[in-house]
Amino acid sequence: MNRFLGSIIFYLLLQRPWPDRMFLLLRARQRFCRRRLNKDGTGYYLIRTATEAEPVVAEVLAGPSFPMSANVAGSATLTELSPFTAYKLYFVAKSTAGKVQDALQDVAFTTVTGTFTSTLNDTGITWGGSYPSGNTIDCSGEEIGAQDCSHGRDVVSNDDSDGHAGFSFTKLDASGNPLANQAAAYVDTPWACVQNNVSGLIWEVKTTDGGLHDQNDTYSWYNSDPATNGGAVGYPDQGNTCEGYVVDQPSTSCNTQAYTARVNAAGWCGASDWRMPTRKELLAIVSFDRLNPTIDTAYFPNITPYSLVWSGVPYAGDPEGAWIVWFYNGYSGKELRDGSIQMRLVRGGQ
C-alpha cells in the first residue's frame, strides 16, 4: 500500500485593494508522511468555519484543487475570508494513479486582521536593487516582487501632482485654506502649512524671514507635564537660539513647550491646537528616495542641511533623552534634551 508525500503552503489572503485596505498575509503549513514512494498528484481542499461540521472526504474531493508534484510544495490562494474569524482548512491528496490519502488532514487558523484606513505614506522609493550591488533607475532588479518599490502607495497611488510617488499633500495659506494654485512655487506664493492628505495631519512650514517660524531657530526639549514628559522636564532655557528671545522672560524661551505656546497664541493657519509630533508622525513624512533632506521640498521648503527635528516623545531608556528624526537620511534616535535642535509642529490626529 503506497502513501505519498504532499506538502502544501496555503497563503491566506483577504483580497481587497491597497492602500485603502491592508491585510496580514498568513501562512499555514501541513506535512503528510510517506512510507514508500513520492507521487505526483492533486491536492483538494475545503474551508469551513471552526464551528461548522467536519466534511467527509468526498466533499473535499469535490472542492477546489491544484496540481502537486513529488517533493514540491503546491499552493492556493484563499479568498472571501472574514477578518477575526476562526477557520479550518481540510485537505486530501490524490495521486495520478487515483490513490486517495487515507484520511483528511486539517489546519486550524484565525484571520487576525480586519480592514483599516491607511494613515501612512509610503517610503518614496520607486527603484529597485540589483544583485550583487547597485540600484536600478526603475522598479526592476533581483527578486523585485519582494522589494519595497513593488508594494504600497508608491505603486497604487503614484501621482507626482500632489507629492512624490505615493505621498499626497495640500498647500495651505496662513488662514489654513488650500492655495488656489497648488502648483505655485513657494517664492511666488508662500504657503504657511501643509496637509498630509493620507494621514490628515497638518504640518508647520518653516520660513526664511527671521520671524517666529524661521528655519534656523533651535530649541531645547522641555515639557512640564509629568503625564507626558517621561519623568523629567528637560531644559527650559538654554539661551538665545531662537527669534524673540528675551532673558528672564519664560514665554520667549527657546524651548519646545514655550515655542508651541507661542505658535498657538498666534493662531497659525487659523488653529490653536498645535503640538509636537510623535516620532512615527515625523517618519511618515520622510521620503527615503533622497538624501539631505529626506523630505519632499516641493511641499516642505526652507529645510536647513543636516536638519535634526525634535519629537515630543521621551526616550524610555534615558530620562535625559528624547526621540529625534534626522532629515539628512531619515535616521531616528535619541538626543539629549539640552541639545539645540529644530522643531516642526503638527496638528490633528490625536
Task: Write structural notes for this entry.
The chain is mostly beta strands. It folds into 3 domains: 7-110, Immunoglobulin-like; 119-157, no CATH class; 211-350, no CATH class. Helix content is 7%, strand content 22%. It contains 4 helices and 14 strands. The protein has helices at residues 57-61, 153-156, 256-266, 279-283; strands at residues 7-12, 26-31, 41-49, 65-68, 74-78, 86-95, 105-110, 169-172, 193-196, 202-204, 308-314, 321-326, 331-336, 346-347. The strands form 4 sheets. A 4-stranded antiparallel β-sheet has the order 4-3-6-7. It is elongated, with a radius of gyration of 28 Å.
Q: Which descriptors apply to this entry?
A:
350 residues, mainly beta, Immunoglobulin-like, 3 domains, four-stranded antiparallel β-sheet, 7% helix, elongated, disordered N terminus
Which regions contain 5 or more consecutive residues with pLDDT less than 50?
1-37, 112-117
The chain-level structural class is mainly beta
Number of strands: 14
- The helical percent reads under 10%
* Strand content bin: 15-25%
Tally of individual domains: 3
* Average pLDDT for all residues: 84
The H-and-E topology, N to C, reads as EEEHEEEEHEEEHHEEEE
**Which assembly state applies to the chains in this document?**
single chain
C-alpha geometry: elongated
What's the gyration radius in Å?
A: 28 Å
Across the major sheet, the strand order is 4-3-6-7
Question: How many strands, which pairing sense, and closed or not: the largest β-sheet?
Answer: 4 strands, antiparallel
- In whole angstroms, the N-to-C terminal distance is 65 Å
Q: How many helices? A: 4
